[in-house]
Amino acid sequence: MDFKLTDEQQMLTDTLQRYLQNEYSLTKRNEAAHHSDGFDEKHWATFAELGLIGVFFKEEDGGFAGTGFDVSCVFETLGHALVVEPLADCTLIPGQVLAAVGATDRLEEIIAGTLRLAVAFDEYNTRYDRSQCATTALQTADGWVLNGTKAMVKFANQSDALIVSARTGERPDQMSLFLVPCDVGGLSQTCYSLFDGGQAADIRLSDVTLPRDALIGERHGGADLIGIATGWGILAVCAEALGIMETIKNVTLEYLRTRKQFGTEIGRFQALQHRMAQMLLEIEQARSAVINAAAAMEASGIERDRMLSAAKYSIGRIGTLVAEEAIQMHGGIGMTWEYDIGHFAKRLSMIDHEMGDTDYHLSKFIELAAE
Amino acid sequence: MDMTFSPKEEEFRSEVRRFFQESLPKAYANKIANGLDLEKAELQDWHAILNKRGWLAYDWPKEFGGPGWGPMEIHIFNEELALAEAPRVLAFNFKMLAPVLMKFGTKKQCDHWLPRMLDGTDWWCQGYSEPGAGSDLASLRTTAVRDGDHYVVNGQKTWTTLGQHANMIFCLVRTSKEGKPQSGISFLLIDMASPGVELRPIRTIDGGYEINEIFLTNVKVPVGNLVGEENKGWTYAKYLLTHERTGIALVGDSIRKFDRLRALFAQEKASMDTQERVLLSARIARVEIDLNNMNTTNLRVLASVADGGAPDAESSMLKILGSEIHQELDSLILRTMGRRAHAYLREDFSSMGASQPASVYFNNRKLSIFGGSNEIQKNIISKMILGL
Do the Cβ atoms of B302 and A1 come within 8 Å? Predict the structure, then answer.
């Protein structure tokens, strides 16, 4: 039993933390995040240079780490500084798909930071369930024809290509994954900003023709690949949320220590002390949930998915509490764009709307136990 | 990061498990499983069985007659003890007074009192709370006045758990009214057979009898029974409470209780309509996740203690989490029992499911009150961790 980071993990997070402290101001982050690009290419290049992306993948796939704890310690550190560059959306998640099918050439480009892929797994009619979809892929003599609409594809417009899930069989869960270039004929994007910064797009596919080798992995093999990649994505956003919560905790604590009302620091009032103490112990529980999930990445299917659902549920519940409590304890200033806390709270709240919310994962946790 | 127990720890776990399988009398395990109390003679018998194996004072260092285990071994033993539904050892002896004597008592006091805990000579109880000093423990008013080679003690103690079985009581008494209330308190060991000690039972809401009030009228206590220095008792009391709280994450007990809840739910769910089943299973899943998380939180604290950290205020966190999760489990067992929870059964009706869930539920409301209420724990967290 050992809860310390390895020397390599410690060194990497120290380096990353130093960079973020010196170079990553919240003001500049917000300018980039709410601009039409949605992030800053300069930071992107540095993250790739630091070797961050390689940390997400195992050696045999061209990376140099790749355990659950490697991923979680990086994303927790990114969360501390509210990093908006899409490392989970455009490298970790699509990269795990590529790793699972042994597409190491493309993965190499992802690790180098020269290729960005966006994942188009969601549709509006299936809510958070990525194991089925209505978009279809018909096999032709020369390849495939795709039709349908994919929802909320994060950073699609900032990516080189998309990984799209589409039905290849009779049953809704008979899905396959396809690599779709963003400039292919018949593909149109409706781009929009995200509430917490960054960009996304709805993707319309009208008779999009693709060559045979656009298929990623096996025919009908899409659901399993999505399961693996989404699992990594869940771990990443849970760890990111933990980092965000730590920052919110520190900022709120500092505020309680310095803000004066009724002639004294408001942190002297028991009503606020007890809420802060509750926030602290809930964040410790959230940290344990992330540790459990990171450890379970090595486990087999159901055990892994169950721990991931437990973590995503915990993060959703505790994240909402932390966001709401922090704003409440700050009072009016917490409501302003100018003050830091709100931007962290918004991201925390929106994480609950990615890859399954609190209720979705609680019910999944129950279903998986019944199996 | 490594979330696994070492092969050595796993081997240790098997050894402990085998011991409980072979040595724990079934009758005692049944009582614990059904939320019933052991008779005094039964617990003494269980103490003797553990003592024979050298595991009665299982968290004591070797020099005082314990096995000298580290935090992880103690945790594994605690967990296996709970999973086997074995009775817990008398905390007042082994987890509360003993650590105080080891840290603050004289060698003579240790040599005298510790062996008597092991061989069953002494059954200790705790004289902390008073009618006017609950959460505000430092306001206690029981006085001890030095008179030659004795103290003369006057006052009243309350909430004395299992005082009816005890022959000795460790008390916080006021030896000075100077300065802050905390600075005039001393830690005194009192023989319950002394003239002037009177014990009256207090019946609890579950109908049970485990707590008492104790009246002390001109009780003579030899000065040799003072632990540490006069007026320094508050430090020792706090030290004791920190020890008391580390066990109170109740991880093993809660895991065992959760298993029982799951079995009960499986048995009852056919009689529920769909929405009722969904609502209840959501509550059960929530507590399972909270419990999983707490198990890891507890292990993290243990690992940091094993590395030389001190559990101080972290034990306050574990106390709050542990008590709330355990109480939620009791509440869910009660809920799952449905109509049958209404019956007031004072014996073993385990064939009907969990017996007397209402008694257990009400009895365990104490978990968030004793050892410093959860509100007091939050005060401690605010002060010690948050620095507010």
Answer: yes
The residue whose two tokens read 């902390």 is B128
The one-character DSSP state at A286 is H
Q: Does the CB of B296 have a partner CB in chain A at under 8 Å?
A: yes
CA distance B268 to B262: 10
Establish how many alpha carbons lie within 13 A of residue A326's alpha carbon, considering only the half-sphere containing its beta carbon. 30
The closest CB to that of B378, out of A268, A277, A314, belongs to A277
β-bridge partners, A119: A163
Q: What is the pLDDT of residue B353?
A: 43
Residue of B265, B277, B386 best to disrupt the A interface, most CBs of A under 10 A: B386
Domains of chain B: 7-89 (1.10.540.10), 124-231 (2.40.110.10), 250-384 (1.20.140.10)
List pLDDT tens digits, range B203-251: 999 888 899 999 999 999 999 999 999 999 999 998 887 765 556 789 9
- Smallest CA–CA distance, residue B246 to chain A, in Å, is 15
What are the extents of the domains in chain A? 7-115, 119-220, 223-370
- CATH code for the domain defined by A223-370: 1.20.140.10
Contact with chain B for residue A153, Cβ under 8 A: no
Distance CA A119, CA A123 (A): 12
For residue B2, the chain A residues in CB contact (below 8 A) are 1-2
Other beta carbons within 10 Å of A23: 12
Of A277, A285, A286, the CB nearest to B381: A277
A–B interface: beta-carbon pairs under 8 A: 113
User: Pick from A1, A257, A313: which is nearest to B289 by CB?
Assistant: A313
Written out in words, the top-level CATH class of the domain with range A7-115 is: mainly alpha
Tokens of A293: 């999930």
Active site residues of B: 244
Contact assignment for A270 to B379 by CB distance below 8 Å: yes
Q: Does A232 touch chain B (CB under 8 A)?
A: no
B292:A366 CB<8 A: no
Q: Which of A91, A148, A100 is nearest to A122 (CA)?
A: A148
pLDDT digits (tens, 9 = 90+) for A319-371: 999 999 999 999 999 999 999 999 999 999 999 999 999 999 999 999 998 76
A143 in helix, strand or coil?
strand
> CB under 8 Å to A148, separation ≥6 — which residues?
A123, A133, A134, A135, A136, A166, A205
| Residues paired with residue A136 on neighbouring β-strands, in sequence order | A147, A167
Indicate the CATH number for domain A119-220.
2.40.110.10
Q: Distance between CA atoms of A209 and A57, rounded to whole angstroms?
A: 31
Give A257's contacts in chain B (Cβ within 8 Å). Answer: 387-388
Gap from A168 CA to chain B (nearest CA, Å): 34
Which uninterrupted H or E stretch holds A261? Answer: strand A260-261
Q: Within its chain, how far is the Cα of A340 from the centroid?
A: 21
